[in-house]
Specification:
With 160 residues, the chain is an all-alpha fold. The protein contains 6 helices and no strands. The chain starts with a helix and ends in a 15-residue tail after the last helix. The C terminus is likely disordered.
Length: 160
């Protein structure tokens, strides 16, 4: 239940983001936040339905959000309010701490018929999936918000 509330808090932060430029048009960040609601909604539904991949997706969201929220909460903000990053930090921490316990593990992966997720190798597989999902989410947000600052990456030839 706490995981669903934490995911709803992150979704609420995305929905209540500033919507328009001073000129009045929609920014690409707003569109990206609406696209980012898709994995949040999928994780909420999957956790409610007790699907193992819902726990993985929620952990991936937590891993993707946590460094950004920590940097914006504790780093230099140049006068920007710290409330939104602090809420994101709390929600990501709650997800990470709440979904990594043994009881939660048994409730999600332990319920899968035919697959034993308890071995060390399967732990490695599980966390590889989670961290790859987190990388996709984090790189998506990075590419959207910092695209003008990293335009030189596009000049690197594919043969390298």
């Amino acid at each position: 239940m706490l995981a669903v509330l934490a995911l709803l808090a992150l979704a609420g932060l995305a929905v209540t983001a500033p919507y328009k430029d001073p000129i009045g048009g929609y920014r690409r960040e707003v569109v990206a936040m609406w696209v980012a609601l898709t994995p949040l909604a999928a994780a909420i539904v999957a956790i409610i339905l007790n699907r193992p991949w819902g726990r993985w997706l929620a952990l991936a969201v937590a891993v993707a959000v946590l460094p950004w929220a920590a940097a914006l909460t504790f780093g230099q903000t140049y006068g920007a309010p710290r409330a939104r990053p602090a809420i994101a930090l709390g929600a990501a921490s709650m997800l990470l701490l709440g979904l990594t316990g043994r009881t939660v593990y048994r409730g999600f992966e332990g319920a899968v018929a035919g697959i034993d997720w308890s071995g060390r190798r399967m732990t490695l597989v599980r966390w590889t999936i989670i961290l790859n999902l987190a990388s996709v989410l984090g790189l998506f947000l990075f590419a959207v918000f910092y695209r003008p600052r990293v335009a030189w990456h596009a000049a690197i030839p594919g043969s390298l």
